[in-house]
């Protein structure tokens, strides 16, 4: 009987650990970021051919927000990142948002409205594939994945399942920009 109780307790503890495990999405810290092309909706290349912001930003510190949904929480995150970019001064931090969708055109109006309403200056873009750029390993369970890199290497990765992006998560993303501005 004692062995049975011990086995049940061990199974429950293991199950709790698995349930508490963080969602993994995107490149891991230390991995290199490869080029990928997006359709710019609100940035300087809006309405032109697809472009590679990863390429344009080179070795600069960059925050890339991959999202499958544009809602109030994502808008709050984008607004905070945009403000951080504006304050980065000579560090020349850059950022861009990538909406992952099998129908990118369906998101263009939302992105334009967000940029106008909130005064967002960072480029809001779309990527024609809900899975995201293959090399970037964006998990299908992740509604939002935020990768921060400098000199082409990931320094920070935050992933949020559907409905899990909150004020605390936004603060963590903003706080962790210090790791790419060192």
Radius of gyration over alpha carbons? 18 Å
The biggest beta sheet reads: 6 strands, mixed
In whole angstroms, how far apart are the ends?
57 Å
CATH topology: Glutaredoxin
Total count of strands? 6
Shape: globular
What does this molecule look like?
- The protein has 182 residues and is α/β, with parallel strands linked by helices.
- The chain has a single domain (23-180), classed as 3-Layer(aba) Sandwich (Glutaredoxin).
- The protein is 34% helix and 21% strand.
- The protein is built from 5 helices and 6 strands, in the order H-E-H-E-H-E-H-E-E-E-H.
- Strands 1-4-3-2-5-6 form a 6-stranded mixed beta sheet.
- Helix 3 packs parallel to helix 5.
- The termini are far apart.
- Residues 4-20 have low confidence and may be disordered.
Per-chain topology:
Layout lengths: L1 H19 L18 E2 L12 H5 L4 E6 L4 H15 L7 E8 L3 H14 L5 E5 L13 E9 L2 E9 L5 H9 L7
Parallel strand pairs: 2-3, 3-4
Antiparallel strand pairs: 1-4, 2-5, 5-6
Task: Considering the chains and any ligands shown, give keywords for the structure.
6-stranded mixed β-sheet; 182 residues; Glutaredoxin; 21% strand
């Amino acid at each position: 009987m004692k062995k049975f109780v011990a086995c049940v307790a061990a199974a429950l503890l293991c199950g709790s650990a698995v349930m508490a495990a963080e969602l993994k999405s995107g490149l891991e810290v230390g991995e290199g970021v490869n080029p990928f092309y997006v359709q710019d909706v609100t940035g300087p290349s809006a309405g032109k051919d697809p472009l590679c912001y990863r390429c344009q930003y080179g070795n600069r510190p960059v925050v890339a927000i991959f999202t499958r949904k544009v809602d109030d929480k994502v808008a709050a995150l984008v607004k905070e990142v945009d403000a951080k970019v504006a304050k980065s001064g000579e560090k020349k931090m850059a950022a861009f948002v990538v909406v992952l969708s099998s129908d990118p055109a369906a998101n263009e109006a939302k992105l334009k409205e967000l940029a106008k309403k909130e005064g967002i200056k960072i480029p809001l873009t779309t990527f024609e594939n809900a899975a995201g750029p293959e090399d970037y390993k964006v998990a299908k369970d992740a509604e939002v994945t935020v990768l921060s890199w400098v000199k082409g290497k990931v320094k920070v990765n935050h992933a949020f399942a559907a409905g899990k992006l909150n004020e605390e998560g936004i603060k963590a993303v903003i706080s962790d920009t210090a790791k790419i501005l060192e």
